[in-house]
UniProtKB/TrEMBL annotation:
This is HDOD domain-containing protein. It holds the Pfam family HDOD. CDD domains: HDc. Residues 22-65 form the HDOD domain. It comes from Clostridium uliginosum.
Length: 202
């Protein structure tokens, strides 16, 4: 059966090439998201840590198109679908929607009408699995400078995007996902994220 995601070396090269198209801290953030996903997956018997790393690494690959807001989700989806990376394409959209409702987006929909309808269709029809939840959690545990407490990432995102009607609901959902994985891991999330306290309180 053909894998619907690239190998690790290809994923790393794709991210490096994307950074050249759009310089920014999003690449470093993606690398820490990938590590968070990998470290958590290593403690879950039903998850492939290599796949988790790759999905985390490429979750924001849509940012290759430039400085954009919600467009990065659908741009990433389209790019990965062209590559035959269906699993990554799915993650490009779902990582921003822990609440499965297109109206829960906190950024601007800087897309065409057709792209918006495509995003809506994906969000309404997709069935989330543990990898979708894992990348949502990993995304909330990583700053460009390293791992952090969820609460610090919540503040980071809110400072950049402002308060939204779904803000608190999104926080609650991420906390639920954290609890879900801690039960699977039988340990605390922060136990598998090196130096999280140092990075948080520095």
């Amino acid at each position: 059966m053909c894998k619907k995601y690239p190998n690790k070396n290809t994923a790393i090269k794709v991210l490096e090439q994307a950074e050249k198209l759009n310089l920014g801290l999003w690449k470093q953030h993606s690398e820490f998201v990938a590590l968070a996903c990998k470290n958590i997956a290593e403690h879950c018997i039903n998850l492939d840590s290599n796949k988790a790393y790759i999905l985390g690494l490429l979750h924001d690959i849509g940012r290759r198109v430039g400085i954009v807001s919600e467009r990065h989700t659908i741009a990433g989806y389209q790019y990965c679908m062209e590559k035959g990376w269906d699993d990554v394409a799915k993650i490009c959209v779902t990582h921003s929607f822990m609440i499965q409702d297109i109206h829960s987006a906190i950024g601007k929909w800087d897309v065409t009408k057709e792209e918006f309808e495509l995003a809506r269709s994906i969000i309404n029809s997709v069935i989330y699995d543990d990898y979708d939840l894992l990348v949502q959690l990993g995304d909330a545990l990583a700053l460009p400078t390293g791992f952090c407490l969820l609460e610090k990432r919540f503040v980071d995102v809110t400072c950049r995007y402002g308060i939204h009607e779904y803000t608190v609901a999104r926080w609650k959902k991420i906390m639920e996902i954290k609890d879900y994985f801690e039960k699977k891991m039988k340990c605390y999330i922060y136990d598998v994220l090196p130096n999280v306290k140092e990075n948080t309180f520095a």
